[in-house]
Specification:
By secondary structure, the chain is mainly α. Helix content is 84%, strand content 0%. Helix 1 packs antiparallel against helix 2 and helix 2 runs antiparallel to helix 3.
Length: 83
Amino acid sequence: MNIVKWMMYSTALLIVVIPTTIALFSATSFSSSFSHTMITLAILLVIAAKLLNVVQKRQQNKTYAGDVGAVVGLLLVVIIRFI
């Protein structure tokens, strides 16, 4: 489960970093809808990884309040982005 979680974090990071470096080092730019979609997708991947972390911590009887707070906060960001 840890491998899947870290792959989600890595993919989310790459989804943000690759288009940013392309835009910085070339004369091209991306449309706002593409940027909006990529950022939302990255946030959703982080939320999914955090939910896996909550499940894993719950099975180990560890505290997971911080992860739930992060999930709620990121969900609010995604919802506000759609409004």
